[in-house]
Write a structure and sequence with these properties.
Elements lengths: L10 E4 L5 H14 L3 E5 L5 H12 L4 E5 L4 H9 L4 E3 L5 H9 L3 E3 L1 E2 L2 H10 L4 E3 L2 H13 L8 E4 L7 H6 L4 E4 L10 H18 L2
Parallel strand pairs: 1-2, 1-9, 2-3, 3-4, 4-5, 6-7, 7-8, 8-9
């Protein structure tokens, strides 16, 4: 692997809608397939319970956290549940600051160069370009050209297995992956198969 975040591929599995009763089996399937970063969006059912279960079971082997984190109070709730990763759809300096204060990993959502540099200056660990589909690889490439080389860039929204190579060539380091690896109602076997296919495609393109 050329690109890594704490020894993991920079691929975030987004489990929007996952429920606590199934989350451990799903987490195991994702980790077995090669995912090392797992996000439970806070607009899922009982998300803090799911995060706590994942952190307890897999916290030593994977980065566990939350998505759709909008306030500093939510940062605290995720951290208290055992999560480390804080992902937002927007760039909120207060959320980034609280994440840093709690020694978490801050992945704010950005769309413009102005937002990207504001997030970097506030202490973000990586940038989530969302929705990436509106930029396309060419748009990401243009913004990436002026960003610090050591700042990881993840594209979220509109990334599929056939397009992985184009996004990587544009300068993306990795992706947040939702419906390509998880949909409500899929069982762990199905999720594992989808995740393994994405990992295979990513590794082939990441050369």
């Amino acid at each position: 692997m050329k690109r890594q975040i704490e020894g993991h591929r920079p691929l975030v599995a987004i489990l929007r809608g996952v429920q606590p009763f199934e989350v451990e089996e799903i987490g195991q399937a994702l980790i077995d397939a090669g995912f090392g970063i797992i996000e439970v969006p806070l607009n899922s059912p009982d998300p803090l319970q799911s995060i706590a279960l994942l952190a307890r079971e897999f916290g030593d082997d994977a980065i566990i956290g939350a998505g759709t984190v909008l306030t500093p109070d939510q940062v605290d709730q995720v951290m208290d549940a055992g999560g480390r990763l804080i992902v937002s759809p927007n760039m909120d300096i207060n959320v980034i600051s609280q994440t840093r204060k709690r020694n978490g990993l801050s992945y704010p959502g950005v769309f413009t160069a102005t937002e990207a540099f504001a997030a970097i200056n506030a202490g973000a660990h990586a940038l989530k370009f969302f929705p990436a589909s509106l930029h396309g690889p060419d748009g990401i490439k243009a913004i990436k050209a002026v960003l610090p080389e050591n700042m990881p860039v993840l594209a979220v929204g509109g990334v599929s297995i056939p397009t992985i190579g184009a996004w990587l060539e544009a300068g993306c380091d990795g992706f947040g992956i939702g419906s390509n690896v998880y949909k409500v109602g899929w069982n762990a076997q199905k999720i594992g198969q989808q995740a393994a296919a994405f990992i295979e495609a990513y590794d082939k393109a990441d050369t």
